[in-house]
Amino acid sequence: MAARSLGVVMNGVTGRMGYRQHLLRSVLAIREQGGVPLSDGSRVQLEPVLVGRSGTRLAEIAGRHGLTRWTTDLDSALSDDGCPLYFDAQLTSVREKSVVRAIDAGRHVYTEKPVAETVEQALGLARLAEAAGVRNGVVHDKLYLPGLLKLKRLVDGGFFGRVLSVRGEFGYWVFEGDWQPAQRPSWNYRVEDGGGIAVDMFCHWNYVLENLFGRVEAVTARVATHVDQRVDERGETYAATADDAAYAIFELPGGVIAQVNSSWCVRVHRDELVEFQVDGTHGSAVAGLHRCVVQSRATTPRPVWNPDVPEPTSFRDQWQEVPDNAEFDNGFKAQWEQFVRHVVEDAPHPYDFLAGARGIQLARAGLRSSDEGRRVELERW
Predict the structure, then answer these.
(1) Chain centroid to CA 241: how far?
(2) What is the β-pairing status of strands 136-138 and 108-111?
(3) Please, which pLDDT band fits residue 1 given cuts at 50, 70 and 90?
């Protein structure tokens, strides 16, 4: 059965995430496998149209991968009825206007997060998309990580009993850019360009916590700019005005407390760059990007505090590895396929603009908590 075509306008593919995760590892990988498989056994093949500000860079990327369609004119790309799907991986500060143009053109929209800079803008996009009758989705990539898929399996299987708490550690040292190049773009560290780790990562933590344990009800947070001067891609020193670390307590339904530290100023002493420990009455688990280990109630050791002698026990050795039990695909690619099925055959995809709005709501509430030095409750809508 021949695959039908679905044109996709991809805006922002010259950036790190837009190119590596969305074009290279998702859309081009889907093309290489012959398209997205549908429930009736047929396939839909993606035909990307690359959009950006630099024609030179777009032409280079297109030539590298054998693509023929690119343009610096977004409206021209959106006017093509053969491209009913628009994807946005631009800077957050310019995303909303482009998404509005796509909705006005009647295009279904899939976008990186945050979906907009403010809650009001995000809710406005959700209302606009609903009124226009277009499908809409926001990237929720971490839900598709092997480690978190295993953690979800434990939650669904009742492994934890009553969940008591969640503790998350995320981050690594991002070089300042002077004696070693920074691993992240400089705009991440300028608040005027939409940077800041709270806005970036709280959107992730919101959907992780919401889909595993329930919606966040309140937040107490403290953000900091630990490194206030960095060097950009041109070798020029600039003032780092955005927060590069965020320490938060999230209150979840049923009295569950989640504590999550996010930092670009921390040196890693963990097995993976992000890890979540979940403790429950019947067992505990530690999940990272790929691995997940557990300790049940029956196998929990009996530690005894004795600071006078070295600890003879290897606590890590007392945990059991959760098996894969499935073949895990790239998380970004898996969600692309899910959203394409949502557009083409009305398959479920719950991660819409409203879900994205809840992410930016949590980020803004966290920043407000830090500014005002108090706990902030989240409005439900």
Answers:
(1) 23
(2) parallel
(3) low
Tokens of 231: 């060097």
Predicted TM-score (pTM) above 0.70: yes
Contact (CB, 8 A) for 83 and 71: no
Q: Is 253 exposed, middle or buried (0-12, 13-18, 19+ CB in 10 A)?
A: exposed
Q: Is residue 166 within 8 Å of 227, Cβ to Cβ?
A: no
Tens digit of pLDDT for each residue in 206-250? Answer: 999 999 999 999 999 999 999 999 999 999 999 999 999 999 999
Distance from C-alpha of 37 to C-alpha of 24, rounded to nearest angstrom: 19
- Rounded to 5 degrees, φ, ψ at 229 are -145, 130
- The b/e string for 322-342 (b: 16+ C-beta within 10 A; e otherwise) is beeeeeebbbbbbbbbbbbbb
Residue closest to 166 by CA, chosen among 200, 198, 214: 214
